Sequence to fold (376 residues):
Amino acid sequence: MAKAALQLNDSGQEDLLLSVSGDWLLDAERPAPDEVISRLSQASKPKSVAFNSDHLGEWDTGLVKTLIAIVQSAHENGVDVDDAGLPNGAKRLVALAFAVEEREGARRVFRKESFLEEVGKNVMSGLASGRELLTFTGELVLSCGRFLRGKATYLRSDAMQYIQEAGAEAFPIVSLICFLIGMIFAFVGVMQLKLFGAGIYTADLVAVAMVREMSAIMCGIIMAGRTGAAYAAQIGTMKVNEEVDALTTLGMNPTDFLVTPRVFALIVMMPLLTVYGSLMGILGGTVVGLAMLDVTLVQYVEQTLQSVHLNSLFGGLFKSVVYGILVAVAGCQQGMACGNSALAVGQCTTKAVVMGIVLIVVSASILTVIYINLGI
Fold:
């Protein structure tokens, strides 16, 4: 294979002759047209550019790509092009490339944005998302009012299905996660409290942590990844299939029909899941405590009952209701804001999970501070 070469025969005259020789193939090394383009853009540029391909070997798109770059530069700088010395196939391909003018804005332009531009765009995007969430929350509040007054349009069978999906069908994963979390808390508590001869207080640690904080948080995170994502995907798919527009055309409010029943399903089921998760966590802690401590089951249960008070129980249940509302709002809002493509459905599902978990963590911090100040 002969090496590709591009030679400029430039004696300062009005014409520029370019000699192409060797094999011009895509998978072989080829000279760049930068020198020719630079010569065409100089102040003392030639009036015309011609080609000589007498010693040209094999060629493919690699040659055509270089010729197109040279011809385009010549057109931009007002230099005439004489393609008589090119192979017929190459001439036709180059002519075809310039047969139709490129539409303005069709070419993708990559421009590196400055740090301040990126910060500004992210801030504006965050503000827009906040306005959308606030608007959606307002519509949901009005819809909930109609729901409680019995004036919302929805299917009772759908509402019961949402309750079943958010409740009974979530029991297996809630059981596993909360049971393991209780075992982890008990193991850490035993390892540390035994150093002070206070191993029995592991029961207090597990019971208070699960009832007051961890059960509600873990159930909320599970629901964000399971139910919140499902809500976003379901409503997003309906947006893509124009089913939401169809509801509006039929005179039904999409928020009443799609969002409000899902929100109430999580409001109803989250406290039940939290209580069940607390029991499973305490059970996991009991298994570890009895295995690692020299106590009986009666002693461990008695210590657990003495440590749990109503303020901890109701505090955890209130948090679970808040987390359920946040998960449902995040999932449904992202679903209603979904675009009209399959890619948009995946993106809104991811955003729903991320937003739900972030809202849970932020609200947990705020509620914990409030509980401490109120002495709950």
